[in-house]
Amino acid sequence: MIFDYFFAKLTQLKPFAGFVVRKPTAVRTVLLSLAMSMLMGSLLALTSLDARSRTVLDLDAQIQPVALQDWGDYWIDTTGKFTPEQVAATPDIPWKPTRADAIYPVTSGSSMWVRFNVPPAPDTERWYLEVPYPSIDRASLYTLDGAGQWNEQRAGDLVAVNKWPVPHRHPLLPIALSAETPSNYLLRLENGHAFSAPLQFISEGRLSYSEQRVSLILGIFFGLAGLAALISALGAVSLRDTAYGFYALCVTLLALTQATVTGIAGLHLWPAWPGWSDVATSVLPMLTVSATLLFISAAVALPERSPRLHWLMVGQAALGALVAVLLALLPAASRMDVFIPIMLILQFSGMLVMGWAWRRGDRFAPWLMLAYVPVLVAAGWTMARNAELVPIGFLTQHGMQLGVALHLPIVMLVLMLRSQQRRENIRRIQGLDRVDPATGLINGHVFAERLIRMIARSERLRHQSAVMIIDLVNTEQIQRDFGRKAAEELPLRVAERLLSTAREIDSAARLSQRRFGMLVEGPFNAEDAGTLGPRIVARCLMPYKGLHVDCVAQVHVAYALVPYQGTNAQGLLTQLEERLAAAPAEGKRAVFMLGEPQPLRPVRRDRPKPA
Description:
By secondary structure, the chain is an alpha+beta fold. The chain contains 19 helices and 15 strands. Strand 6 and strand 7 form a beta hairpin.
């Protein structure tokens, strides 16, 4: 139909109408040939376009690192037994293009082969093939020499770091460049689970700069973690607080975990222990979360709140430790199947306990939950990487360091506030036998001790001080007029006014429910002492905030200057109490000085009866 349409159109064109009519078969043949040529040209163009779509590897020193992207080809050897000679000599291997964000289904017993060639490039600087995955089991780079032999360079967790071609945080394999001919390479990768890391090339000069930047970031992180661990350990010793001790253990294990994940531990801590480098990435995180459960239990006072729940947390921590031992014995292919569910269960349990403590009034539990949010987010991203749900990237490499950097200051602040509150509670408990718990004033026993010392001090320094007894006398009237609550609150308001009147060197005490005492340090004379009592009476008569304007305290004050006529402290207090007891309750006078002449009461005399 298409050819008929074009044929009809040609017959309508005047220059071709006669020719088309005379030679219809020839015209149809030409049209069909043109159509087939256009179709084949389109197919060839698409094929060549698909071939040209693969990125050409260009080792440009100005743009680094240079990713392999899809320039290479990969193949999964499920038997794991192929040698580089067999791979190079087998023509029917189903190679596929590599990709920077690909997740390759490698597992134990299999291996992944990558073939690539490096185009001619200037050989003035040394270049390296970088596998930015510190936890890979083995990476072997094979180079074809002039004699047709494949030379191997090997790195990875199953190879001691001190035996790598270039000891580094992750496999770094030198490549040889030629300015005239391309260089062919085979790369064999082995890992216990699926593998994801962008293969890339970096020059020696750029490598030095990149490592300086990474060293700065990691140095800040490990310095912060070391400081937090040291402060926590000192706090555990000085304050005898188990929460500090468990947190010091948590931070230490967390730092070791990050050192293992980033390759720092394999490079500096155990370069000759390839077996431990292989299992440490699973064992250390499990031990860290076990120690975290013990820390959370201590931080929210779980042994005091719920001993049963505390022992449940201890049991879960013990389970985590046992799983860590099991992970060290399991083959690499089975570790993630055990590691991920147990890790999620223990993390969820810790958050659940903090939420439980928050519901029951723990003031620090919500802050602890906030502190663990960035760590849990980063840990979830890392576990997704381990499960090969997401490819390797910046967050999978450095997300945990960022999360811990946010986590540490919050937890240290919470621990300091918590220890301060504990010290205050201990001081209150220890001071119950010396301090009135309702007002915070010293009690009668301490008041008598301080009075004895003040009398001795006044005698030695030859000056006068004052002792005062203050009685609250209108409590019953306040209860009648304003209710029981106001009457119970009034002594607390009097204590507040006494504290505001006393100086730092003076002492205020609560001697009974309605009686208070004050020790006023001298030196001063009798005239100065005479103003103390009226000042206290006036302060107590001032209106109180939150109470009715007429709801004020009426007090009687009896005072004496010390030393007082050789009277001891107990005798002086007895005389002051008797003086207040003798004062008329309805009288207008409110201040009484011990030792002043007493007014004589009139004596009634009966007249003699007349005889």
